[in-house]
Write a structure and sequence with these properties.
GO terms for molecular function: aromatic-L-amino-acid decarboxylase activity; pyridoxal phosphate binding. Keywords: Decarboxylase, Lyase, Pyridoxal phosphate. InterPro entries: Aromatic_deC, PyrdxlP-dep_de-COase, PyrdxlP-dep_Trfase, PyrdxlP-dep_Trfase_major, PyrdxlP-dep_Trfase_small. By secondary structure, the protein is an alpha/beta fold. It has two domains: 261 residues, Aspartate Aminotransferase, domain 2 (3-Layer(aba) Sandwich); 108 residues, Aspartate Aminotransferase, domain 1, CATH 3.90.1150. The chain has a seven-stranded mixed beta sheet with strand order 2-8-7-6-5-3-4, sandwiched between helices. A hairpin with a 7-residue loop joins strand 9 and strand 10. The chain is globular, with a radius of gyration of 24 Å. It starts with 8 loop residues before the first helix and ends with a helix. The relative contact order is 0.14.
């Protein structure tokens, strides 16, 4: 086959048309997919053709067949699972990443993407007021960002106990105790499982899901040997932040490594509005967040920050004869995350931050929280609606009386399709959980969403009277 650059023109132009049609439909289309997966699978259930097809026709076929099964996650009326939309600069940069086709692992081989990611990392540290000497790695998502920070911590606490996990593995190693709040997120549990550390010891939390310092002190007193403490910046249901300074001081006094899971809530550190709530955050040892949530870049963009770069490179660094490494001694991107070969996923982060600037990033974060507050206030004014959490950031948890009634209202709302809010369970109750994460959500989206909840509530109320 002969490479001809002009062969890309027609399929890329068709991709642009299809993407623009999709994005243009978001303000008005229902959020839920029009067809279930079974019907989509049937539409795609065709034998592999014997010969090649026109690339532009393939793109058209793909967009046409997929469209009925796409959820409008980029809509300002999508409030499920803490998923953001995509900023224009971030989406466009992500397309360039695919076109450039750079393996983002080595500074020497792909200097442009390495330099872009390094600058994006410096901007993140500056915005979030984290130690400027920290190492920043771009992982696949929040789960792997937690994995990165906890892997660095596992190696550090075992090293302090006289054990080299890199050479000797975990068999026979001192047991690493992990302490986490009672409402620790499943992504942390998965990361601990991948690291061979098992289930954490759960520490009591208060009514908003914040770890209790007195309970942490008691748990730390019972630990003998290496220890990791996991704190939360942004509870999944309440949005609440663990008391950072007090808990980190307790953990460090006990010789523990402190990791902060800030999948969506770490971005609050960019705004002075949450300075008091996050006081002491910068004194932890590692932090994890996900740029596709609050920062609104495309998926595949977790961010791991480790205060001690040597601990991170010890966990993930690798050398072999065919790697041409930079003479400057700086860490290669592949030494900061689990993958050797990887997409240059920090480039869309650079583009998002470059387009927003400091004030725009703060406005984005504060705007999400303001919309959460507006939703909570409007929903609380509806008859029979109870907002269960203190709305301190971007999360709202709502109940409609009994658990059964809450589930029925949630189901009616999802079937309506105007908005998407997730059903969940929190503090022993069924809830409708609202995560405000999309940069496009505005006052009109809030009003339409409240009306949709009111319709679902009225539908359930009418059925109860029959």
């Amino acid at each position: 086959m002969t490479f001809r650059p002009d062969e890309y023109r027609a399929p890329l132009e068709q991709a642009v048309r299809s993407a623009q049609e999709w994005l243009g439909s978001l303000p008005t289309r229902p959020v839920k997919p029009a067809l279930p997966v079974e019907k989509l699978a049937a539409a795609f259930d065709r034998p592999l053709p014997d010969g090649p097809a026109d690339p532009a026709a393939v793109v058209t076929e793909l967009a046409t067949l997929a469209e009925p099964g796409l959820m409008a996650i980029g809509s300002g009326r999508f409030f499920g699972w803490v998923m953001g939309g995509t900023l224009p600069a971030a989406l466009s940069a992500d397309w360039l990443v695919s076109a450039w086709d750079q393996n983002g692992g080595l500074r020497y081989a792909t200097p442009a993407t390495a330099a872009i990611e390094e600058r994006a990392g410096r901007w993140i540290l500056d915005l979030l007021h984290l130690p400027p000497s920290s190492a920043v790695g771009f992982a696949t998502g929040g789960t792997m960002a937690n994995f990165v920070g906890l892997a660095a911590g596992r190696g550090a606490v075992l090293r302090a106990a006289g054990w080299d996990v890199n050479s000797d593995g975990l068999t026979g190693a001192p047991r690493v105790t992990v302490l986490a709040g009672a409402e620790v997120h499943i992504s942390v549990l998965l990361a601990l499982r991948y690291l061979g550390l098992g289930e954490p010891t759960l520490v009591a939390a208060d009514a908003q899901g914040r770890i209790r310092p007195d309970a942490l002190a008691e748990a730390l007193a019972a630990v003998t040997g290496p220890c990791l403490v996991v704190l939360q910046a942004g509870n999944l249901h309440s949005g609440a932040f663990d008391p950072m300074r007090q808990c980190i001081r307790l953990a460090h006094d006990a010789g523990a490594w402190v990791h902060v899971d800030g999948a969506f809530g770490l971005w609050a550190a960019a705004s002075p509005r949450w300075t008091a709530a996050l006081e002491g955050l910068e004194t932890a040892d590692s932090w994890a967040t996900d740029a596709h949530k609050t920062l609104n870049v495309p998926y595949d963009c977790g961010i791991a920050v480790v205060a001690d770069p040597a601990a991170l490179r010890s966990a993930f660094g690798a050398q072999t004869s065919y790697f041409v490494q930079d003479d400057a001694g700086a860490a290669d991107p592949m030494e900061l995350v689990p993958e050797l070969s990887r997409r240059a996923r920090g480039v869309p982060v650079w583009a998002a931050l470059r387009s927003l600037g400091r004030s725009g990033t703060v406005a984005l974060v504060e705007g999400l929280a303001d919309n959460a507050r507006a939703l909570a206030d409007a929903l609380a004014a509806l008859p029979g609606v109870e907002v269960l959490n203190d709305v301190v950031f971007t999360q709202v948890s709502v109940a409609f009386g009994s658990d059964d009634r809450t589930r029925r209202v949630t189901q009616a709302l999802i079937q309506d399709g105007t908005v998407w809010m997730s059903g969940s369970a929190w503090s022993g109750r069924a809830v409708l959980r609202i995560s405000v994460s999309n940069w496009t959500t505005d006052a009109a989206d809030v009003a339409v969403s409240v009306d949709a909840v009111a319709r679902a509530l009225a539908q359930v109320t009418a059925a109860e009277r029959e």
